[in-house]
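Re: the 403-residue chain
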Amino acid sequence: MSRTKSALICGAAALGLSVGGCASTTPRIPYTLAEGQAADVPGMPADVRFYADSPAFVYERFRQGVVAQAQARHEPVTYLALSSGGSDGAFGAGFLKGLSESHQRPQFTIVSGISTGALMAPFVFLGQGYDGTLQDLYTNGYASALVKDVSVLNAVVGNAFVDSDKLGKFIARYIDQGILDAVAAEHRKGRRLIVVTTNIDQQRSVIWNMGAIADSHAPNALSLFRQVLAASASIPALFPPRLIEVESGGRKFQEMHVDGATVRQVYVAPDELIFGGKSAGPSPVKDLYILVNNKIDPSFQVVENNTVSLAARGLSTILKREGRSNVLSSYAYATSHGMGYHIAFIDADAPEAPSTDAAEQFSTEYMTTLFARGEAKGRRTGPWLSHPPLSTDPAGHDLAASR
């Protein structure tokens, strides 16, 4: 998680403590836990979503069609997981373009994305013909405009520092009916596009089958597709949450969804499969690729001795460790299930964003520099590592390098 995100969350918490009675957002329709657990999205097929902590058979049922069609085409099943990372998603976009330029980019059967990874995911899923769109996402100035004119007043009386639907308009600029139709066509071929949001009411990760949305032909398909992408990237406190219309027992209400990275930074499989030990047979996935839009190693910073700085640094430390744990658990999962493992991430020596200020973290100059760095790494021979760094001790790295 970026320093901007953690600082904003801490700032919002402080505001909530001091002015909690001033909020003026529209009251929500209350609903019970039982209603929430049974809720469906009107007009959408039953397989349009499931929870990340659902039983393993739910995920296996989701994956069956993928495997059958891949086998019919005599193609291996490959999985790419795109992590969270805010403005650092520019690295991943550049890395993928570099892979295309060096003819080292696999055809990914399944693509999952969280937060900034979710914004990238549809274009990565559709292939290298959309590399220009990926570059445009991070380097043309539109992304930097998302965090301009941050309003403290709006955070006091509303639900976020950004007081208009900038993120929704940004997504609508890139996701149109043509993109929806292209995703639907790939879905029918047996490929899968996954986006992860956090149902903040239930504190659970929701796995959205974006191809099923695109291929539903429902009148609300395009709006829901955009809404899920926006929810996955809606950093709490910075962007407003997304209220998704659902129905349970004939009763309609709204679930509140926020940034997928609130619970996890990378998604590869349900918890029951990740932590449940070796399965009865090898996984149908031949190769697992993890693209981390962040650094994995700890970052050094002399922290200012004040409440907000300490809280922000503490939260970012917790979340960085959680992200690293996600990466290590994905490695253990892949090796115990006979998959090839491939990972790429921002090198430890890459420059940090200029400050914790949101406008500077999302500056076009910073993202353009990071995009170029990712592109150069994607062009290298052997751009993926076969395992994550298992030690974060710099002395350990030095010893390993000298062997």
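Strands lie at 49-51, 77-82, 110-114, 192-199, 204-209, 242-248, 251-258, 285-295, 340-346.
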